[in-house]
Amino acid sequence: MAEPVNYSEDSIRSLDWKEHIRLRPGMYIGKLGDGSAYDDGVYVLLKEIIDNSIDEFVMGSGRTIEVNMSDHKVSVRDYGRGIPLGKVIDCVSKINTGGKYDSKAFQKSVGLNGVGTKAVNALSNSFTVQSYRDGRTKLAEFAKGELIRDESEKDTTQRNGTAINFIPDDTIFRHYRFIPEFVESMIWNYVFLNAGLTINFNNQKYFSERGLYDLLTRNTDAETLRYPIIHLKGEDIEIAMTHGQQYGEEYYSFVNGQNTTQGGTHQAAFREAVVKTVREFYKKEFDASDIRASIVAAIAIKVQEPVFESQTKTKLGSQNIGPEGPSVRGFINDFVKKELDNYLHKNTEAADGLLKRILQSERERKDIAGIKKLANERAKKASLHNRKLRDCKVHFDDTHERKQDTTLFITEGDSASGSITKSRDVMTQAVFSLKGKPLNCFGLTKKVVYENEEFNLLQHALNIEDGLDALRYNNIVIATDADVDGMHIRLLLMTFFLQFFPDLVKAGHVSILQTPLFRVRNKKETIYCYSDEERRNAIAKLGNKPEITRFKGLGEISPEEFGLFIGKDMRLDPVILRDANVKALLEYFMGKNTPARQMHIVNNLRVEKDDETINPTIAKETEAEEELPVAV
């Protein structure tokens, strides 16, 4: 039994605003991360600043926002009304201070609690705010929330608005980096949701005329669509939807301009309303899964004083549109029932295409019903003694505070999985071990997911058979050797996910684990190197012929060392889908041996030779060498 600790008045401590934010940053911005995931804290910092500029645009002030990013510095300049000069310091450094508490001024704003900008200030090494207002300007500079410069007001010729520059604190966001694709996706969403807004990001212009219609156009392959995109707009609601050829359901949902990546009451209501309306239109009780199979849809609504399930606002919890408004469910159901039904009556091409897609899904479901039942029974039995899965205790679909950290490592062979298993965090990290190379499933139907035992067990481990709502791990990490065979396994796994669960990749859940290629050490210091350049720098630093080890496979890394690479300093490369035409992408890399791919291999074949400290290796001439880029 532990010794009793003295508990008195001296034990009680009060933290000021910046101390509390820096001590518990996760309460304000979610997970910290290094920028390798789209929902890492560095992107939340950027979003919090841009959100304020968007609110100015919504209120009719400022049609252009400038966003610039160089190295680790971020600059955001809007042309709104500008912060009142006498309150510039208060608005960025005093909790519960802001201009959005009066609902008349900001009826449907993203953030109402006055915390966002203060969190950015407290979590930045450098934070500068400057307001331009009616020919006068005021500037203040902070370091980790501490005011270090307070300039007096002075005259200016600059247009009204606010400029904020910040550099995230690298002691909190360790080894962070901004991935341009994530920032670009965020900015596209802003312009899709705000017709008439222009955002210039690093001198590139982003603009949208048709809102959510443009969003679906950008994120889908037009050749795979079964009918033209349906685009419906009403007061405080906008919807775009279509059906494609992919498996699963794909949704983009927004509340007051906030991308609710985890859905919420509005997305659930939309899914329900589509099923109800389609059944009534065709006068047939189709299975809900057949109606929603292969759907691609976007929904944006505006809610007065929205309630989100966390400070990062990724899931809507509001049950009503406003304090005295209708329920979210009723509001969306009434809109979809009226507008979608009218659209289908007026547009026979869309109605016919939708019906054909539903009937096709129905045939496919019935075709695999038998094998699916048997496969699920086998998976249920295997789950009791599944040697492929070493599970963790916390899962993404529960309410535990660490659920964002939940990770499934997919490894090749027992040696690699053994090292990860021994060094992992048993609370949040699970391991799934492959036996050899998985099947190349390109061009196959979803029937193979049930017929192939390994794919079926992986599907059940992730719990994604019926969509992502019950996904058990936030991070799905492919952990393979850094050799030709390892690269080929990466390809095969990415093909599996892109072929049958593309929404898993598009939602940012799939990553590649980077482990060191070399260990350079002497008696005093050990340096792990992830590239030849890092190895050369380590040799130069340690000098006097240090010991150099080349890790040929994950199994050669001891469990004690492996723990260093899957903890707080874990390096992940996210799998980012740049091209909406997934079919063409997979056809090129994983289809039959096309001449185009043959020529690509011939033209890019390399012979690599290391220096004298490492045994020379010669690349093999094989298609497996053609690694699908991590950003696909």
Q: What gap, in angstroms, lies between the N and C termini?
A: 55 Å
Query: Beta-strand percentage?
Result: 15-25%
- Can you summarize the main beta sheet? 9 strands, mixed
Low-confidence stretches: 101-105, 611-631
What global shape is seen?
globular
Radius of gyration: 27 Å
CATH class of the largest domain: Alpha Beta
What is the domain total for the residues? Answer: 4
What's the architecture of the largest domain in CATH terms? Answer: 2-Layer Sandwich
* Tally of helical segments: 21
According to CATH, the homologous superfamily of the largest domain is: Histidine kinase-like ATPase, C-terminal domain
User: Could you say which structural class the secondary elements and strand pairing correspond to?
Assistant: alpha+beta
Secondary structure: helix percent: 25-40%
The CATH topology label of the largest domain is Heat Shock Protein 90
Mean pLDDT: 84
How many strand elements? 23
GO biological process, one term: DNA topological change
Catalytic activity: ATP-dependent breakage, passage and rejoining of double-stranded DNA
EC number: 5.6.2.2
Pfam family, one: DNA_gyraseB
Features:
632 residues; alpha+beta; Heat Shock Protein 90; Ribosomal Protein S5, domain 2; Rossmann fold; 4 domains; six-stranded mixed sheet; 21 helices; 36% helix
